[in-house]
Design a protein that fits this description.
Elements lengths: L2 E8 L2 E9 L3 H9 L1 H8 L3 E4 L6 E6 L4 E11 L3 E8 L8 E9 L3 E9 L6 H23 L2
Antiparallel strand pairs: 1-2, 2-8, 3-4, 4-5, 5-6, 6-7, 7-8
Length: 147
Amino acid sequence: MTSQVITSLQGDMVHALVTLDGVSATTAMNAWTDPELLKRWWAAGRLTIDPRPGGVYQVYFGMGDQTMNGTIRHFDPSGTLVFDWAWAHEPDAAPTVVTVDITDTETGCVLRLTHGPYTEHDEPERGDMLEGWAAFLKRLAALLTGA
């Protein structure tokens, strides 16, 4: 099985496109909602999730001793997850929004991610997020495709 990860900055948003051959959209979505799977690719110590609008989506990153606090805005297990993103150590920062859309294809699935918006003064963080998503989505692809 093969995969491809393409990340880019477009305006005030970070974008990613991940092609996952041989992987269903449901399997790919499970990697975002199953604590054991998420731990394996996102280097997370733990995931707390209540997969309904207004529910918690909180990820503790053990490697960096950081917590991302989020609230579910939308969840469809067959292919869409939208949640707020705010670092616990930056309580005054405005949250950004992560949207994950996954669709089945003839050979597997395609994952589209957007993260933002970022303002002009968030330029360094936007670059860090682009770099981070590129690295972690490659880990996700390797986990799901066995490559």
